[in-house]
Amino acid sequence: MKKILLIISVFTALIFQAQTSKWSDLFSYNNVLKIREDGDRLIAATENGIFYYYPGTGEIKKLSKANGLHEVKISAFDYNPATQTGIVGYKNGSLDIITPNGIFLTVDIPLATGYNGSKKINHISINGDKAIISAGYGVSIFNITKREFGETTFFMSGGIYESAFSAVLKDNTIYVATANGIKYHELNATFPVYTTWITPSSLIGAFKKVDATDILVFANAKEVKYGSLGSLSTISGFTDIQDVKVFNNQIIITDQQQVFVYGANGVLQKNFNVGELINTALIYNGQLFTGTQMNGLYNEQKNSFKPDGPYNNRSYKLSMLNNQIWISSGNRDADPAPNIDNPNPNVSKIGYYHYDGTKWIYPNLFVNNSSTVFNILDVIPDPSNPTEVYFTNFYADSGSKGVYKMKNNEFVKRYFFNDSSSYWYRAMGLAFDEQNNLFSTVQSTCPGYSDPCPTSSFYLFNKSTDAFGTLPFTTFNIGGIQKPLIKEGVLYIPAPYNNDGGLMMYDYNNTASNTSDDKFKVLKKTNNLPIDGTTSVAMDNNNDIWIGNNQGLRILSNPKAAILEDNPQTDAIIIEENNLAEELFRDAKILQIAVDSGNQKWVSVDGGGVFYLSPSGDKTIYQFTKSNSPLPNNSVTDIKIDNKTGKVYFVTLDGVMVYQGDVSEVTSNFGNVLVYPNPVVYAQYKGNVRIKGLAQKTNIRITDAAGNLVHSAVANGGYFEWNLNNQRGVRVASGIYYVLMTNEDGTDTATAKIAVVN
Questions:
Q1: For the chain: N or C, fewer Cβ within 10 A?
Q2: Over the stretch 403-425, which tens digit does the pLDDT of each residue have?
Q3: What is the CA radius of gyration of the chain?
Q4: Which residues of 426-436 are buried (b: 16+ CB within 10 A; e: fewer)?
Q5: Buried b vs exposed e over 166-201: b needs ≥16 C-beta within 10 Å?
Q6: CA distance 8 to 692
Q7: How many whole angstroms separate alpha carbon 232 and alpha carbon 212?
Q8: What whole-number distance in Å separates Cα of residue 348 and Cα of residue 511?
Q9: For residues 489 and 560, what is the distance between their CA atoms, to the nearest angstrom?
Q10: Dihedral sign, CA of 512, 517, 522, 528?
């Protein structure tokens, strides 16, 4: 069937689509750090983005790294409605300047020579064309018009830096809250000289917040002082003050769970008990709004306003089924804890998040949980009944660890393995096979060894008895095994620890409950793996196994047959780099591998972002990093592809980012062929033209309006990119070009037009 692509005349929209709208975020907007007003809307700054709430219409819009911001981990924010300028401060010390003309990144934070402390922006206060920036080294004045730092004072005494928690400009004087008191200095020639700063004797002690309009307000954890320096009054009796704001002759004090509004005379006007942890508050059109830690914006009726999203940004693995998503929040390696496999309980009770196709759900099992510690490494639905979900809790405590069963996001049962041990037999990952058998990989017991234990096993779930097998199939001398991959009756289980790791291939011959005909093999360095530690595994459309290793990448062809071989050998991918043969990803730690329907590979490298490779791996199509894309960080812990839509989900510990890929449901025939951007205006776009919706193998001929051939190619994998050069390598002239396409056997054709404007 012939498919014709019409030229769309509004080229700016398609150019924008090609560059920007390919990304979207799955961030949490629950934890509101600051609230500011701007005419008919409120602006709320959260951990990974900003959202705009319009009380008059109920509309909510969001701004994140997916559509304009340059970073994640927001730590400070302020906004000036008079100039429509906002400034976002990040934990890494950079700033985003939001203006009507665009968003501009500033990274030249003025650190002193030898300063090795935190670069985190603690507080921002805008006053006209100046922004007062508080940080771990002291305080700086930022010129908003020039977008550059000016005067800076390094708060250093005796070789020790003192952090500025917040600062404000009033009557040409800067007031700063520090752990040792309120410090102030006029903006004059001696401003950068720390020894010339003054700390009033009445304001010595640990102060957290400062604000000012007609009056000054200073806050420590328990009390607020207000007025002028020569005449300060005190309001006390608070639990742990989080924020203070002077607004329309009112003092708004945000305590742990309550907001207190006082007049400038110190008389209490309003007290709002939110009943949960809050960060900040603001009065807008006479209505009090609070920024909560878990539910976005609250009004006084405790109605919640926020973009829909997961409960938290902390993410590790993702599962998909139909239009639903499940995200686990655990982490095996990076938690701040004495033992890497036992994360800090204070940050590990989050659980999992579920998108049911219309909204995000946070199960009651994890809400206000105070007893069970959760470090969930994996969560998957039952493909035959998605209302039933299983997850692994890796936390070692005997009352917490194991596999949990949920139904409609409500707890049903916990399954554990040899619970006589309070530490070992911990569930790692889960997988269903094609016959709907559920397997769990388990880190086994081995007294006398330090963690990680160098033996592992897996268990089969028996639905009729509602239990996992009492004994493992067998115990393998590989440690720290990961989530299994199951294809055609074979389990492929990576084990990442270098001395005890490898890739275990276990063929149960599609008879899961019968072990008599089972066969297995463990691939290690002797099988041409770079080292024994295997981190990830994926099977491509040619049934080749792609093996991610702690020090590189390998491919094993015909893996089922390799189980029967004495010494099967894997292959490296050799590419040409600077006219020299080089092994792809040599010495790099591979975190995850995913294969799209066109057989292209997405490979995440620890600290190196994500690479999009050609089917054979010899060509890098894209590399996405934190600096050149909206990725939250450069270590992507999971990649999932929705082959129906072409969307690629990148999971990081700082949140999930989604990329609209070019490949979806590739078959031997054409899909919905699309060319973009189109037309191609050189002044607006200088990249390649992309054609997607192609057959698995497509023969392409591009001609000019007179029928002369200007370019030909064979595209594999469902899409093609043209650099607008002719066969001599010269850019084509302005005009209309025709793309004539046939599939591999010539049974299906497609055509398209491309308009080029140089």
A1: N
A2: 999 999 999 999 987 655 545 68
A3: 29
A4: bbbbbbbbeee
A5: bbbbbeebbbbbbeebbbbbeeeeebeebeebeeee
A6: 16
A7: 13
A8: 37
A9: 9
A10: negative
φ/ψ of 527, rounded to 5, equals -100, 25
Angle (CA) 622 624 626, round 5°: 165
Instruction: Please give the Cα distance from 165 to 176 (Å, whole number).
Output: 7
Q: Coil, helix or strand for 59? A: coil
8 A C-beta contact, residue 166 and residue 208: yes
* Residue in 130, 198, 120, 215 with CA at minimum distance from that of residue 164: 120
Q: Which pLDDT value is given to residue 149? A: 94
Cα 452 from Cα 426, distance rounded (Å): 11
Residue 3 backbone dihedrals phi, psi, to 5 degrees: -125, 125
Residue corresponding to tokens 């899409």: 719
Tens of pLDDT, residues 658-671: 999 988 888 889 98
Strands 680-681 and 749-757: parallel
* Secondary structure element (H or E) that encloses residue 228, with its range: strand 223-228
Please say if the pLDDT value at position 641 is more than 50: yes
Q: Coil, helix or strand for 748?
A: coil
Question: Which residue ranges form the domains of the chain, and what is each CATH number?
Answer: 27-241 (2.130.10.10), 309-416 (no CATH), 674-756 (2.60.40.3110)
Work out the pLDDT band at 266, boundaries 50, 70, 90.
very high
Residue 672's CB is within 10 A of a number of other CB atoms, namely: 11
- Please tell me the total number of residues recorded for the chain in this structure: 758
The answer to whether the beta carbons of residues 404 and 388 sit under 8 Å apart is no
Task: Tell me whether the omega of the peptide bond preceding residue 679 falls within 30 degrees of 0, making it cis.
Answer: yes
> Beta strands of 249-369 (E only): which ranges?
250-254, 258-263, 268-273, 278-284, 287-292, 297-298, 304-305, 317-321, 324-328, 352-355, 360-361
Which of 78-87, 419-428, 684-693 holds the top average pLDDT? 78-87
H, E, C per residue of 407-452 = ECCEEEEEECCCCCCCCCCEEEEEEECCCCCEEEEEECCCCCCCCC
User: For residue 142, what are its two tokens?
Assistant: 């930022």
Q: Is 14 a residue whose pLDDT tops 70?
A: no
